[in-house]
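agent> step 3/5: call structure_predict on target 'Aldehyde oxidoreductase iron-sulfur-binding subunit PaoA' (Methylobacterium dankookense).
agent> reason: downstream docking stage needs a structural representation; sequence fetched in step 2, passing through unchanged.
tool.input:
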Amino acid sequence: MNDSHQRNPFALTRRTMVEGCAAAVGTVGFGWPGRPVAAPAMGDPPPQTMPVRLTINGQARDLTLDTRTTLLDALREHLGLTGSKKGCDHGQCGACTVLVEGRRINACLTLAAMHEGDAITTIEGLADGDALHPVQAAFIAHDGFQCGYCTPGQICSAVGMMNEAKAGWPSHVTAQIAEPLEPRSALAEAEIRERMSGNICRCSAYPNIVAAIRDAAADI
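tool.output (status=ok):
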């Protein structure tokens, strides 16, 4: 023990910091899978649960969920479908994007109980057996990822975005918003970048992502 600690027993050292953090962690329980869960306060009512049937990738799944469970947590923590990632948990990064009735949504911003009866497609359900979805194949061919964390959300968002463009939905950069868009012209680079702006790649693989989407558009 050094002289400064002998003079001041309350001095902060690396050892006291580690010991303090370990003690704090020890007072917190852990849920699935190793996720910290605060102990309920005395007198708090028990969580309200309800049965929910979700149709995930063509398969009906029956769950009993806390009414506050997000779709993302239902997928990851209750069904083991961990392809959809929890990035910001605030709907700002797009890593949790899935398709609901063919439309892309942020799974972290919607409750699972709201989607009973909806057809939900995650990254795990895009491929047809061993045959990759054209967007998945294009991302591999164009090296449209680095760490891969955002990739499931990027791919699901790209599939939903292509459906929007083919349906003639304009974007902020569309020149003639009153006229239906041709699928190929709708997916010029500026359109892709604008329409995919809700999906963040912290590795900055955007040029390859854009190239992959333009290439896949011809096959969908």
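agent> step 4/5: record observation. The helical segments are 3-7, 14-26, 71-78, 134-141, 151-166, 183-186, 189-195, 206-217.
agent> proceeding.
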